[in-house]
Amino acid sequence: MPKHWKKSEVILIVSLSxxxxxxxxxxxxxxxxxxxxxxxxxxxxxxxxxxxxxxPFESLLELNKDVVGWIKIPGTxxxxxxxxxxxxxxYLDRNLKKESSSRGSIFMDYRNSNDVKDYNTVIYGHHMKxxxxxxxxxxxxxxSFYADHAxxxxxxxxxxxxxxxxxxxxxxxxxxFLQVSFxxxxxxxxxxxxxxNRSIYETGVxxxxxxxxxxxVTCSYEFKNARLVVHAKKE
Length: 235
What we know:
CATH architecture: Beta Barrel
Number of strands: 8
Strand content: 15-25%
Mean pLDDT: 89
CATH class: Mainly Beta
Radius of gyration: 21 Å
């Protein structure tokens, strides 16, 4: 190091070097997390879909007792186990093995019954830049995509269920789309009318007080803390 360098210059160089090293390590961890989770999820999918003739959840429940179902949306990369904890924070940054992960897991709202018999069952997932987790939901901002991919496949622990999408919109996180129970049919009908009218395009799907619905939620980027919401009714 040249003798004429000032002490402040040396400190600056050391500081910048530390920042670069930290950034490199952080990026490396992020990339490794993405790769390891991709391989892990691919293996889970293969095992789950190949074991449909027997109980496909047996090995998943051995891995994690919090597993409550499996969600798949044809035409997207969404094909994941669904877990449920005692709150909505635990799986935000933990994978199926409960290890720390920036991708988190696809998880059901803790208020819901895992038999998906509530008026509204809510499932959350991160919108990852590599297209994983619930990033595929962003395709539903385009009506042309919806036209060919109007159904969600959700397997509860007891039965496979198909859901027909009827509303897609962008919301504030504080909006009341996360309501899962209702005091009476009138309140539920008002809720349905509200979320149908919020849709960014008409789907033509009829929904009544007798229907049970599934709500998928992920991040969106139209404004700070925006949420993309997709509602579907049980067939």
